[in-house]
Amino acid sequence: MEHLGTTPLVPNKDGRTPLHEAAMKGHEDMMIKLLEHKIFLDHGNIDKVDCQNRTALHWAARGGHWNIVELLIAKGASIKIFSTDGESALNLAANADDGRILGVLFRAWAAQGGDEGIVRAFIDHGETQIDTKDSNKRTLLSYASEKGHDNIVKLLIEEGADIEVKDIDDQTPLSWAVRHGYEGVVKLLAEKGADLEAKDEEYGQTPLFWAAENGREGVIKLLVEKGTDIEAKNKEYGQTPLSRAAARGHEGVVKLLVENGADIEAKDKEYGQTPLLWAAENGREGVVKLLVEKGADIEAKDKGYGQTPLLWAAKNGHEGVVKLLVEKGANIEVKDQDDQTPLFWAAKNGREGVIKLLVEKGADIEAKDNKGRTPLSAAARRGNGHIVKLLHHKI
Known about the structure:
The structure is a single chain. The longest helix has 13 residues, at 99-111. The protein contains 23 helices and no strands. The chain has helices spanning 18-25, 28-36, 56-63, 66-74, 89-95, 99-111, 116-124, 140-147, 150-158, 173-179, 183-191, 207-213, 217-225, 241-248, 251-259, 275-281, 285-293, 309-316, 319-327, 342-348, 352-360, 375-381, 385-394. The chain is an all-alpha fold. It is elongated, with a radius of gyration of 30 Å. InterPro entries: Ankyrin_rpt, Ankyrin_rpt-contain_sf. ANK repeats lie at residues 14-35, 52-84, 136-168, 169-201, 203-235, 237-269, 271-303, 305-337, 338-370. It holds the Pfam family Ank_2. Keywords: ANK repeat, Repeat.
């Protein structure tokens, strides 16, 4: 840094500092060293402008130096500065059609509040720029929707932005807004005719499914009112939104979906599990209670293992769920496809609390599976000495 002298911010005849020069030429090592120099980070000096009112970020974007752009953004460079030509760094990156730089700048724009001036600049410099895509095929509308910038979303829609544009993962602006729970944006997009049933390629999930997965009650209520398909299944397991909400433990969402007519006994295509089975397997006590009170089949079996909600809960050690199901009348001697009972699974997996609960409720300690094994022998086979001792004292 010695060659910079004692006044590294003194500009040349074009008003450019060493920071501008490093950005123009794509000198990453020099940029790193300059940004370590405290003076460039003080008092907004990272955004110092030259005679064209361009910052280092402008020049890095114009030159396609995405690594420099990332460095500057990470250090707090502003994207809200316009050159004498009325161009922002985003405009310059769009003109160069540089997807990587656009991605960095789009994210920064959204994180910095979705400045309306940037959008206006896009509009003023050609209507095609409003749907310019970054390397992930995301647009300004996509990022604005993800961050919940209602005013920007409204402006972009009014200016003709494509509301159905899909990114590299087939996520639409509506999908992004739904996932993050931005009701205002969801309402705006839905009222403008956004496809409520659009599915992404990887998971095959609709906006409602994403909302259910992420526990977005307000969004779900809005989508249901707009007539979305409440039973739309995803591609991964063939689950319904209700099953996914149950598995995730989103009680409010489960209640809302059930009250709006969701099939309480819907089975996924992969495992044949009902919402109650998913909830029991994952220990979602509140959801289990809700579904049982709504009349869910407490003895429903999956197709993979022939297990009931009680078997799953016992197997995974969910004491609260086991207690609840038993109190609601679940069969404690029910057997899966291998003739293994809830007590057998609890012993096999070392679930001491569940074992005590089941034994107190009268579970058969000598019940054998299809290979003649008892809960005691299953525990011994797994090396669960404390369980062997517990069961031995009960015999």
